[in-house]
């Protein structure tokens, strides 16, 4: 299995980023591919996990080893596959997810695509008290209560916002959910990555 890949950031799509290394382009599925936009054409390191099944061979990648560890914990839960785990991690803050698990906040967990009450309960049963090796003790508690600012409304349309909507659709959010939050997203001087993060915070507050 690949521990990490060090290479140049090439193509970026709604579901994946391509890392070029020694003439080979590795297509790597990742929670928020546009987080690598600022590094396009530059060398970076992406931490990887190779997922093998009878019908699929896929490479998943993460900006940090912490994200990768959390991904591995999530896919160990019955009812959570790689796509579901990516959607949970796309919020960009593993400690926020860990906090929800530790305080048994099922309502928070069910806001992610594909996570119903039964799956949320399974996540809590399987992972509560078992995530100290992912996030140092105390960090999850510090994340509780952190407010995330979302810019005000605007009716402008931008390529970056369109890319963000496509990325969120790829994670499993419905067209109805996205139409509801789109008017609340600002479009002045935000990157695709920032739109995704703001949109996720809105989706989790609904």
TrEMBL record:
It comes from the Bacteria. GO terms for molecular function: helicase activity. The keyword DNA repair applies. SMART domains: HhH1. Residues 159-206 are annotated as: Domain III. Residues 72-91, 107-126 form the Helix-hairpin-helix DNA-binding motif class domain. NCBIfam families: ruvA. Belongs to the RuvA family. The RuvA-RuvB-RuvC complex processes Holliday junction (HJ) DNA during genetic recombination and DNA repair, while the RuvA-RuvB complex plays an important role in the rescue of blocked DNA replication forks via replication fork reversal (RFR). RuvA specifically binds to HJ cruciform DNA, conferring on it an open structure. The RuvB hexamer acts as an ATP-dependent pump, pulling dsDNA into and through the RuvAB complex. HJ branch migration allows RuvC to scan DNA until it finds its consensus sequence, where it cleaves and resolves the cruciform DNA. Homotetramer. Forms an RuvA(8)-RuvB(12)-Holliday junction (HJ) complex. HJ DNA is sandwiched between 2 RuvA tetramers; dsDNA enters through RuvA and exits via RuvB. An RuvB hexamer assembles on each DNA strand where it exits the tetramer. Each RuvB hexamer is contacted by two RuvA subunits (via domain III) on 2 adjacent RuvB subunits; this complex drives branch migration. In the full resolvosome a probable DNA-RuvA(4)-RuvB(12)-RuvC(2) complex forms which resolves the HJ. This is Holliday junction branch migration complex subunit RuvA. It comes from Siminovitchia fordii. The gene is ruvA.
